[in-house]
Amino acid sequence: PSPTPVWGIINAGSYNGAIVRPEPGSNAMVLSLLNGALIQILPETVNRGGVIWLHGRTPDGKEGWVQAALIATATPVR
Q1: How many CA atoms lie within 13 A of 77 on its CB side?
Q2: What is d(CA 2, CA 62) in angstroms, rounded to the nearest whole number?
Q3: DSSP tag of 23
Q4: What's the alpha-carbon Rg for the chain, to the nearest Å?
Q5: What tens digit of pLDDT does each residue of 10-52 get?
Q6: How confident is the model at residue 72 (pLDDT cuts 50, 70, 90)?
Q7: pLDDT reported for residue 53
């Protein structure tokens, strides 16, 4: 059996969304996601200067890095 994918919801509060970056801490942008958008959380994480970055994939297959503080987990983790 394959592991259950972990999904998160963008939850950036008053910022209204999050930027998906090609690398953790990069100034470049892959795309932006509004609050409420789903993102699959992939296993890789990076701590860059005290900021935790999660590797993610959108439902349409785009991948990049998002600050962990801007994602609420939607899939229960057992």
Answers
A1: 8
A2: 21
A3: S
A4: 12
A5: 999 999 999 999 999 999 999 999 999 999 999 999 999 999 9
A6: very high
A7: 98
DSSP count for the chain of H helices, then E strands: 0, 7
For residue 13, give the 3-state DSSP assignment: helix
Tell me the sheet residues that pair with 51: 48
Q: Give the tokens for residue 45.
A: 């994480």
- Kindly give the residue spans of alpha helices, DSSP state H, lying in the chain: none
Beta bridge partners of 38: 9
Tokens of 48: 């860059």
Whether the pLDDT of residue 57 is over 70: the answer is yes
Instruction: Name the burial class of residue 35, with classes exposed (0-12), middle (13-18) and buried (19+) by CB atoms within 10 angstroms of its CB.
Output: middle
Q: Decide: pTM greater than 0.85.
A: yes
Using an 8 Å Cβ cutoff, are 40 and 75 in contact?
no
Rounded to whole angstroms, the Cα distance separating 4 from 48 reads: 27
**What are the beta bridge partners of residue 9?**
38, 72
